[in-house]
Predict the 3D structure of the following.
Amino acid sequence: MQASKTTAVLWVSLSLMAALLAFEPKSSAAEENKIRLQWAFGALTGPEDDPALVSIEETAVLRSGDRMKIFFQPQTDCHLYLFYQSSQAELMVLLPERGSGSRTTAGTRMMVPHGSDWFRLDEITGIETFYLLVSARPLENIEALCNNLSAASVASEREAVGRQILSEIHRLQKYRRTLTADAERPIRLGGNFRGLTEQGQPELPDISKIAMEISAPDFYSRTFTIDHR
């Protein structure tokens, strides 16, 4: 009887250890695929010599002459995609840049457009849209379609591939929305947004000061809609 009891205890202990070992790789894999990213989408509105900085989180009403800029800094390695659709329904790939891969290493600071440049709204009004996709793994369908768009030589072909990209974006957003629990929080608010250059001209603000930090299991998406008036 004593030997049977010892064997039973040993069997239970081994079973518990096996269960814990079986669970641990899943937990480690989930943590490995976790996405953490800081982003900011800022717009400068109002007078040219004294513009106001506005944070765009989902929708915004802007006017011709207003400027826009986007900031990214991932805290984990990830694959980053950014698309722009004009009011004439023309789709452009902003990220990854032509000739570059989508993989972005942790700690990389990115501005779109680069450096001190800003997007400026022209006189053609309408709804303009930006689509952000972030993934722990490459989005192979999206990347193949981006290559097709780059290779398209005529407008009708570009329009057709653009529609395919939008369809794939919407499919991913719909499918992944049920699988992820995104968390967002502002991380850096306040501070001096503007200073003066050596020439005494107003210096444009650093939009990283209005960054948001997101955390998601392995995929994150965001759609920004600009009502350009």
Notes: Residues 1-32 form one domain. The first helix runs from residue 2 to 32.
